[in-house]
Design goal:
With 306 residues, the chain is α+β, with helices and mostly antiparallel strands. It contains nine helices and 13 strands.
Amino acid sequence: MGTQTLPFIDFAEPDLKPGSASWDSIRDQVRRALEEYGCFEAFFPKIPLDLRKQMFSSLEELFDLPLQTKFKNFSEKPYHGYIGPNPLVPLYESMGIEGANMVDNVDEFTRVMWPEGNTTFCKAIHLFSKRVSELDEMVRRMSLESIGVEKYLEEHMTSTNYLLRVQKYNIVPAESNEPEPHLGIRSHTDKNVMTILYQNEVDGLEVMTKDGEWIDVHYRSPDSFIVLVGDSLHGYDEAGEEARYSLGLFTVPNGGYIIKAPNELINEDHPLLFKPYDHAQFLSFYYTPQGLSLEHALKAYCGYYK
């Protein structure tokens, strides 16, 4: 493990508005971080401590539900419903809540899990998702501004929705004889637009730099989030001595939306690398034995140079 650390960017400025000097300064930091690492640690103290504690308590309650109840979190979309332990990832469980920044969607999920209702869980998850979506919107706006294509901002924002995945990385049994007993989830690149991760105080996330060095991520503040650009960085998770709970807010393109590079970014020095593609169709390709076996699935699916 190397000695590098992820860039730390402070989003606590109370008047952080587009066009302000503080906005421009942080936008420059975001661009440098994404160009160099594909991710960074964001200091974003907008979620009260009591809410965070209640949220993780609610997650313990959620994952303690009977297996047949958790299976009710079903979706035909890949990686949107319940995922339970399997031989490849024996320590990992997760569930998905589409549009978790909207209270009606969280309420619907809650009533599937608890038909009698669970107001505490519903309020905590909704408020968390709504606040984190504000960070996502700032980072995406800064990203488009920094490369001079902010005119596409409205199209970009309206072409995506949010998927909150609540995740549990179980502890490794002391008597485990598994060849890789510490593996929580295998190395991968996120296939969506952007991911924002938040977890309890149990460390376990590792990321790979473009130079091939692994960074062991230690959150420097309880108000920190890890922001990752989809499909630009490898993330590797381990399980530790305590169960690790995390929440990932994934920015996902809407079904049928065609992803393509703006013409302003294409020239002789920067040729088009990927053909326009439908994200949902790409996911259907990726979640096959062939797709999962590929190191660079997007390049194989729609890259000009395969």
